[in-house]
Amino acid sequence: MLIVENKNIILAKHVITFDTFIKRLIGLMGKTHLSSYEALVIDQCSQVHTMFVFFKLDLIFIDNDNRIIEIVNELKPFSLSPKVKNASKVIELTGGKLSQFDIQKGDRLNVIR
Question: Which InterPro entries match (predicted)?
Fold first, then answer.
């Protein structure tokens, strides 16, 4: 489960972690969707690509304390996100999901696996 701690917002009920080099490299390549109840957490990551990902993604970059340091809304397929300094993880959600919630930089996330 992925929760915004200081606001009691549940962003995703199912969390998938990509924590190996191969999993991080492949990511969502070739996929046609990510369910609205899923979040993908990519460890040791400060930038992502959407090469061969056929849908938009919302991205949350967090630091070592799980604080949000950058938000990217609806990154298009075949794009490259900004490289976010001090990011330790990137959370990928289906595009448009974050527009439903009032989250911002500085909010703290809790990832329950």
Answer: DUF192, Saro_0823-like_sf
